Structures are given as C-alpha cells and as structure tokens.
C-alpha cells in the first residue's frame, strides 16, 4: 500500500467518485499505548445499492481485510457496519474503513459483497441467521450457528 494514503485521501476519493450518495461520518486518529502509535479510521454511510461499488473502489486503493460485519438495531432500522482494513500487515499504515448501510426493518435486504471479498460470505451468513437480514446473491445460504430445529423468523 502507498504510505501516503490517509483517511482524508480516502474520503476525498469517495466524495469525487460517489458525490452526495456516500456521506462521510467521521475521520479519526487516536494514539494508544506507551508508544502512541496512531490508529487511523474513516467511516462512511453508504446506500445499499452502492455497497458493492464502495468495496470495488476500496480494492482500487488496497485489497481490504474484512474483519466483520456488525449490526445495530436502531429501532426502525438495522444498521450493518462493514469493518475493513486497508494496509493490513503494513506496520503502522493500517486504516480502518467502515461502511454503514442502514436498512429499514420492513426491507432487510442487502446485496452480497462476496463477489468482491469472498470471505465475506461467513459474516453475511451470520447476519442472515442472527439478525434476519436477507443477503441477496449470497452463494452459500446455509446457517452457521443455530440448530436446524430453531424456530424460523426468530432471531437471537
């Protein structure tokens, strides 16, 4: 990864590519520990129809390491947070990039990103099983954790 890439560079690139469709939530840098090594991050809100394109754009910068997709129930919606790191494995150059997709509870459908990030299928399957989100186009729709006799439509 080019060591001149910064969270601000990423934000500027997404603004140029996607305009107002993708909104920047925040850029942060914090230093932790005795050595005060900076931890850099950038957070975006992305509409579901641009999620795959957002990951394609990120791959143009550097191949992302997808950590997990987390979920937050906000009342009327479920926010999916896609936590990925670029510069992964390059000492002190990593940047956490988080895409947030908000889904209304009456339309919990999001496209798979597994075509771009093949390993995403596991965390996508988990979101289907545990949250009730439908991941359209997912190549493997099986559950991961719940027994076969677990009640349908009930989400832990």
Q: Which helices and strands, and how do they pair?
A:
Layout: H1 7-18, E1 23-32, E2 37-45, H2 51-61, E3 65-73, E4 77-86, E5 95-104, E6 109-111, H3 120-131, E7 134-136
Parallel strand pairs: 2-5, 6-7
Antiparallel strand pairs: 1-2, 3-4, 4-5
In short:
The protein is built from three helices and seven strands; from the N terminus they run H-E-E-H-E-E-E-E-H-E.
Tell me the structural class: alpha/beta
What is the residue-mean pLDDT, rounded to a whole number? 93
Fraction of residues in β-strands: 25-35%
What is the gyration radius calculated from CA atoms? 16 Å
CATH architecture classification name of the domain at 7-106: 2-Layer Sandwich
Alpha carbon gap, first and last residue: 39 Å
Shape: globular
| Helical proportion, percent range | 10-25%
- CATH level-four homologous superfamily name of the domain at 7-106: NADH:ubiquinone oxidoreductase Nqo5 subunit
The number of helices is: 3
Low-confidence stretches: none
Largest sheet: 5 strands, mixed
Total strand count, please? 7
Sequence of strands across the biggest β-sheet: 1-2-5-4-3
Order of helices and strands: HEEHEEEEHE
Identify the CATH class of the domain at 7-106: Alpha Beta
Q: Would you give the CATH topology of the domain at 7-106? A: Beta Polymerase, domain 2
